[in-house]
Amino acid sequence: MKPRFKKILSMLLGIGVGVSVAASAWSEPTLQQVMKARGLTQKDLLAAAETYTPTGKRDEYIAFASGGQQGGVMVYGIPSMRILKYIAVFAPEPWQGYGYDDESKAVLAEGKVHGKLITYGDTHHPALSETNGDYDGQYLFINDKSNARLAVIDLKDFETKQIVHNPFFQSDHGGTFVTPNTEYVMEGTQYPAPYGGKYVPLSKFNEKYRGGLTYWKFDRKKGRLDKSQSFVFELPPYSQDLSDAGKLASYGWGFTNSFCSERYVGGDMQGRPPFEAGCSSKDTDYMHVTNWKKAAELVKEGKVQKRRGMYFIPIKQAVKEGLLYLIPEPKSPHGVDVTPDGKYIIVAGKLDSHVSVFSWPKIQKAIKTHDFEGRDPYGIPIIPMKDVLHTQIEVGLGPLHTQFDSKKCIAYTSLYVDSQVVKYDYCKGKVLDKIDIHYNIGHLMTMEGDTEHPDGKYLVALNKLAIDRFNPVGPLHPQNHQLIDISGQKMRLLYDMPVPLGEPHYAQAIKATKLKPLIRYPFGWNARANHKSRWRTRPGRERIVRHGTRVDVYGTVIRSHITPEIIRVNEGDTVSLHFTNLERAEDETHGFAINGQNVQLSIEPGSTVSATFVADRPGVYPYYCTEFCSALHLEMEGYLIVKPKNYKAQTVSLKHGVVYTKADYDKQVATNMKTQAVIDKVVRYITSRNYKDYPQVVSLMEDATDQLNFAKGARKKAEAAAAKGDWQNAMLWANQWWQYQVKTADIGLRAKTYLDQHGAHKIK
Ligand code: CUK
Ligand code: CUA
User: Fold this and answer.
1) Ligand 1 site, CB within 6 A
2) Distance of alpha carbon 702 from alpha carbon 231, whole angstroms
3) How far is the CA of 590 from the centre of ligand 2 (A)?
4) Backbone phi, psi, residue 564, to 5°
5) What is the pLDDT of residues 159-174, one digit of tens each?
6) Segments making up each domain of the chain, as ranges
7) What sections of 163-223 are H helices per DSSP?
8) 590 ligand 2 Cβ < 6 A
9) Which fold has domain 61-514?
10) Which ligand 1 atom lies nearest to the CA of residue 506?
11) Stretch among 162-166, 274-278, 518-522, 619-623 having the lowest mean pLDDT
12) How far apart (Å, rounded) are the C-alpha atoms in residues 441 and 635?
């Protein structure tokens, strides 16, 4: 902003203009001095230069990482590793009002398990929606392992829109993974259990306990998972683990591995050897190969029965129709990852020092020629491992998960026990490089690493332990995400990011340019449900409506007041507050908190947010805006007055505060006139530029116009009161007129600054 404007505005606001500090006597330290003082090496400086992101600059990739037991998703930029947001999913999050407003409570309620509200999640695998095998930046899915739930996040506003509970499963792990056009979202069980959570004694484990794999149909138009069009594969009570969807060559198929195909049930207190012994006694477990494309066709032809509101494919039917096969894989495997071309499936076994590379063409051939070595106890054909293996590569101890490079045949696998990442060529079966990780890596991710066209460039190691890496903060340590450069032949560690969240399992990173989130909502939007709110309220239409003991407050928020400022109800009333944010400017969210009611709302520009509670205790409850939104933010306040039952009102006139005179009024009006001159100047400046080319500025101008109209309204009231000699009200309304002017000027100057910074030019 031009100093002249700033100075005038500051004068009017009564704020002194800061005196700039005289040029300092000492000069900036040299690079060498900083290196010496902080003990940095040349290598450190290089890593710093590769990750440091100067103020105003943005990241090339955006990562979506599981928040683990925190039940949400963490969003950060790469390579800066700067955290941008925690998306609330399965657990309440007050800053976003998630779990505190009626709209998000409805989303959380969708995730009830047998009627119980669950307010945490154990999130493991985020999955970005795909179109033609590449991330499209539209949606994000994530699972809750402990409660067998999935959630849908819309990347238009980074909000959770839906939670679904699997009516069959008691846990899930092999989700979420999407098919190449997000036709389906895969969700596999982890711990076998009787379907639907029924009681069946453990002695009936083999007969009645089951695993499973659900293909949730995604309705992209609605942006919702459609339970009624989804199907579930019945699977044996092997502990199914991770999944991945086939792509290109293997399109139409899915892969899910398992551990504990021994079907062992522990019971240390019953004198039985523990699970860990019984679940790793055999040399191999099974990879499950499922044909979802053909299953979808059968569903379409009406050949699949429904159970629990979903299509259900019994093992028998799956075998008969050729939808399900097993392939032995080295014992207790973890990750199963399909290569970008879809030709290989890489399985890494925790207890085996190899990665096993299975060949899709060979698997296909075995299926076609009925090359089976037998059937499992449930009648599922078993394809001989040796016939479909491409190669096995000795990579190190505890291999878990695999990700891919932009370069052909190059993969990276995490080594949990060795605490390393190994880089290798899976076509030739050759190890190329290893790098030490600090400590115990679980998942790893490369940029767009799950797509048909990975970007390579960076790899993030998602580690289980931080141990002594950071400043100690008590026995519970932060997690550690390590950024590694993979653009060259040798991997190079660039950065350690401590994360004070739950255990990181998986993450995915997308090119930042693919994300196009909203800046503001359409007017009166219910952001959780993605439609207009029935409670939206236009300026000037605020009202309080009573129906029996229910009181609906149709309110608005805009700098710097909440309408209404006084809400009177009776003890025992059900109060439902509905606030619409009238702002159009970017980042003008207002908060709303009220004493003692567990209500904390985040009302983003354009949105309408509700909160309902019973006013069960008489009293006076201050409420206010919780976001520092303007100079008069603290004055964005009001009172909820809950009148006791049987209260006898006394008539007392509302008198408080200072008494004003004509002189006060005249002085205020003089100030208002000067302020108007500043506003006019700013407006002239903006309208003489090509401001209409900047949607940001256009919406700021709309906001400014609103405020100016409010100013006109207040001015009329001031002048009417002055005409009657009511100097008290004349002065107060004159002051309110000025408040609106100040907001107008503030918005106007923001628009002007934007134009100056974005090279707007004069128009003739
Ligand atoms: S899991 Cu945690 S490191 Cu749930 Cu994919 Cu492997
Ligand atoms: Cu709105 Cu502070």
Assistant:
1) 124-125, 173, 242, 334, 400-401, 442-443, 505-506
2) 49
3) 5
4) -80, 160
5) 999 999 999 999 999 9
6) 3-51, 61-514, 532-643, 662-757
7) 205-208
8) yes
9) Methylamine Dehydrogenase; Chain H (2.130.10)
10) 5
11) 274-278
12) 50
Cα–Cα distance for residue pair 244/257, rounded to 1 Å: 9
Three-class SS state of 630: coil
Give the model confidence (pLDDT) of 619-667 as tens digits: 999 999 999 998 888 889 999 999 999 888 776 666 667 889 999 999 9
Q: What is the pTM of this model?
A: 0.90
* Residue 173 Cα: closest atom of ligand 1: 4
| % of the chain beyond a pLDDT of 90 | 81
State if residue 294 touches ligand 2 by the CB under 6 angstroms criterion.
no
**Residue 648: its pLDDT value, please?**
81
Beta pairing, strands 211-219 & 224-235: antiparallel
d(CA 235, CA 326) in angstroms, rounded, equals 11
The CATH label, of 2.60.40.420, 3.40.50.2300, 1.10.390.10, 3.30.930.10, for the domain at 532-643 is 2.60.40.420
Q: What is the C-alpha to C-alpha distance for residues 129 and 154, in angstroms, rounded to an integer?
A: 10
Alpha-carbon distance values, 707 to 544, 673, 683, 741 (Å): 23, 16, 13, 7
Q: Is the dihedral of CA 525, 530, 532, 536 positive or negative?
A: negative
Rounded to whole angstroms, what are the CA distances from 144 to 66, 73, 119, 464?
10, 11, 11, 18
| Ligand with smallest separation from the Cα of 463 | 1
The residue nearest atom 1 of ligand 2, judged by CA position, is 590
